[in-house]
Amino acid sequence: MKYKNELDKSSKKFYCPKCSKKRMVRFINLDGDYLPAEYGRCDRVLKCGYFNKPNGGDDISNMHVIYPPKPKPPTSFIKREIFEASMRGYERNNLYQYLIKHYDENLVKYVFLKYNVGTSKAWGGSTVFWQMDGSGKLRSGKVMKYNADSGKRVKKPRPLITWAHSLLNLNQFNLKQVLFGEHLLSDLNNENVVCLVESEKTTLVCAIEFPQFNWIATGSFQLFRPKSLQVLKESSIIVFPDTDAHDAWVKKAAEISTDLKIEIDVSDFLKKKSVKSNSKKGLDLADILVRNNDIKAQLETEFNTILKTKIMRHPILGKNIESFDKDMVIDLSSFKKLLCFSKIG
Ligand SMILES: [Zn+2]
């Protein structure tokens, strides 16, 4: 009979028999059942060090009946009608209202439709960043409220953030997140160079300012991981981390790069900027870029430096990359297609 025990991969912790802190991870069998309470590892590795493996003299294989492993719950999706119904109401969408103060409204509408950004009634005028996978299915939408004047997230008295499936009261919803903008990956331009940022809002601002690049967001640092970036395996990535977590991103980028064998360049543009400005709070690319031609010009230089390094590594890219510094005009025929679909006008 096949028997396999392993440490429970969930975040559940139990009381440690040695140090009595609730920090012990227990062993589970193939069926997902816990082995007796003494088998486990305390995660206070240095201060406690308790680790009792189920092997040696203890014959525990007869304590549990073995069943085939439980199937993993299937990924849940949101109905297309719900998504489509959210793709309007921009007159009360605070982030949209902020952006049209700084950019041509057609351009703002274009990126909202391209990136599947809708409006939610939550807290009056929130923004929904839908996560659509490569096959066009909707995993869920992240709902956040912004201040229409500053364009910043409302975080007081508490951060106004939730998920579409929570607002819809969908029980036992199994959310499997994808990258924000993942649905656009089948149609990359510029030799598959993908610019990766953390926040969804940054993606929208950068897509307006630098439409010649492919902008994608992880949505959080936690999603900057090999599993989520698998879809970028064919791409060459440039990451723009927020300043407050720059070093963590650099470290993680090296791990992902080794794991997936992909090229990741991490830009320290923002880090240098925040040192210069002596800013204690983290800088976000979107906040300094909006309608700031100086920053835009400096970023263009940054792009060219990174791209030149890339070309040196892969001379074959050179002939296509020359056009990178040219301004690109947004293809309005695709914009019209989007407009037809959403019936916004
Ligand atoms: Zn312990």
Automatic annotation (TrEMBL):
Where would I find the DUF6371 domain in this sequence? 93-242
Name the lineage: Bacteria, Pseudomonadati, Bacteroidota, Flavobacteriia, Flavobacteriales
Segments spanning the bilayer are none
Q: What is this protein called?
A: Toprim domain-containing protein
In this chain the Zinc beta-ribbon finger putative domain maps to 3-55
- Pfam families this protein is in? DUF6371 (PF19898), Zn_ribbon_16 (PF21957)
